[in-house]
């Protein structure tokens, strides 16, 4: 058997091993590329980042592999590389998955192999997001317009606050001092229209408020994100002192289960349909709707309980629909009323039904009952 065939067979056997069968960086299954410098297996997307770092990468199926490189891969592997480069990853640091935005995957890889942030060695000066205090300027979208302006932000882990200033004259005081108790942050590059776009959501009185920000530097915006996660983690450890990391880490920040446009009619179901942007926050069991996808505040919010409490979700064909351009109906029923929505395509309808049912079928926690009661009290 020629060396090429023999070596390829060895590599294909190596990549099936438990530690190697997923990308070393994002966890994608069945990686087909490898870092010759580090001795680990990665997916196509992560291989591109390694290539940009001048780390030699090769296809395990298409490229020729020298004997010594194959031996190097055999003596290393994903688990061995993680032991060194992920030795001291903070519990709050977000470890990107295969479907996360490119900026998160890139900065995770750069943090591990270029900046060597997680080897356990003492850093001086310390890594910025580990200090408990973060200050800088971010481009922030105006509340009532599409213009982004540079604003000063200050994050204090000790105070559990995120503060921002709206005017150039900061001596007048902050525009807002935001408690991180209910704060969420997640990357939204497509929606914001910038590859580094970050959406920050928090409670303001009885409403939910959205801030849309970005920074020119990918490292800086991801550092902001992980600094927010560090502060949120510290808050959760204080609020739930007996909570384990397994319980608390999923609560630090969250991605929304489903977002997109649907048409919505009024409570009588005879009012004209209007196009609205919807966000399903599964952790809070809330379906928000907005006039536009970059609105600062919601027009309304619908709590999604369980079937035993009088909630249901199903397909529908409205009898008296008017003004609608779309025809794929979704009916959400609560103890108080019915909500009728229209999707543009059957695929969108199916995705919304599946997402809503996922929340509907999850048992309610004590915190969910509190959220439900608060929303009823608001009405």
Give a verbal description of the structure.
30% of the residues lie in helices and 25% in strands. With 379 residues, it is an alpha+beta fold. The strands form three sheets. The chain has a seven-stranded antiparallel β-sheet, with helices on one face. Helix 1 packs parallel to helix 3 (67-75) and helix 7 (218-239) crosses helix 8.
Notable traits:
alpha+beta; seven-stranded antiparallel beta sheet; 10 helices; 17 strands; globular
Write the H/E string, N to C: HEEHEHHHEEEEEHEEHHEEEEEEEHH
> Would you identify the regions where 5 or more consecutive residues have pLDDT less than 50?
none
Give the DSSP E fraction (strand runs of 2 or more residues): 25-35%
Ends: how far apart?
76 Å
Using the alpha-carbon principal axes, give the shape: globular
- In terms of quaternary structure, what is this? single chain
Largest sheet: 7 strands, antiparallel
Q: What is the average per-residue confidence, as pLDDT, rounded to a whole number?
A: 93
Count of DSSP-assigned helices: 10
User: What structural class do you assign from the helix and strand content?
Assistant: alpha+beta
